[in-house]
Design goal:
3 helices; about 80 residues; single chain; about 45% helix; mainly alpha
């Protein structure tokens, strides 16, 4: 989900919009608070055998204000 942190040593990691969007999509789909979302995404990545960094609570909180999560859905008859 988090395609990697970009940046230099000692600097705050910078996550792509796609990584933030993926985490926020999980948050909306499962109705999770942000702190639970970070743990859930980290667990999913670990189960998948991926060693990708996960955006922390503060990063998600700050970036969710500027990114809109749009989920396509079909209404059931």
């Amino acid at each position: 989900m988090a395609c990697g942190a970009l940046g230099q040593a000692g600097a705050q990691p910078v996550y792509s919009d796609a990584a933030i969007q993926a985490c926020l999509t999980v948050k909306v789909l499962f109705g999770l608070p942000l702190r639970q979302t970070t743990g859930f995404v980290a667990s999913l990545l670990k189960l998948a055998g991926l060693d990708w960094p996960v955006p922390d609570y503060s990063t998600l909180c700050r970036r969710q204000k500027t990114l809109a999560v749009q989920l396509p859905y079909a209404e059931r008859p």
